[in-house]
Amino acid sequence: MQRATPSTGMTPSSITARTSLCGIVLHPAGHTRSPHMHNAAFAAMGLDAAYLAFDVAPEGLGDAVAGARALGIRQLAVSIPHKVAIMGHLDEVDETARRIGAVNTVTRIDGRLVGANTDWVGGVRALERETRLEGRRCVVLGAGGAARALVFGLIERGSEVLVLNRSVDRARALANELGAARAGSLEELGGLPHDVLVNTTSVGLRSGESPVRAADLAPGSVVMDAVYDPEETALLRAARERGATPLGGKWMLVHQAAEQLRLWTGREAPIEVLAEAFDRAGQDLG
Q: What is the pTM for the complete model shown?
């Protein structure tokens, strides 16, 4: 393992030889709110477990997974830039994650490391807080791992999905592989009727920019940005001004974390505890 970032709510005296160790592998690690969220949920659920952030550079991923095996780590969340590469280091990848082409959760099951994807669950459950998805016309911006998860999830929910990306070839490849209705460039959003728009690109991550023009957003639609820092991105401000419903990345992160906890424990996670911990983490890291 590489450098571990301490997490809120843990002290050396609270960790024993029986404590289950969990965590997240990503690079860089300074921005993640996952330790705050999971440790709060562990406490609320009465679990003797601790969750750390592990800053793992791409070249160290194989060693990190070997370390997780040796240390008996019970569950790992997987974030950028490892969601695809980690698949080659696991004993098994479930069918859904294999179809999506990315893993964001690794759970130890009978001594084997099994990959899954909870991003799609987090994405659709976040959107379902604001609208039904069956029969809706949905646009996904981007063609990376998060986009793949959202396209998969929206199609599972019965939506008609369009994929728009700066690289049209990548958008088309994703659309063809997962069964989206069509693909195109970001500039094609103007004039396309849509009920839901989801941004999975990194545009807006502390940049103050939007991936699409405000005038191209449909009034009355739901606009979700997977970016959760800042809380209100330029895209979400534009959505509000256009009369659309803005939805930040908070609830996608919360619901995917809840699904990770369910995969490990078999129990339903406390959503509000996770959400409150997300907010506190923003204050601590701000």
A: 0.91
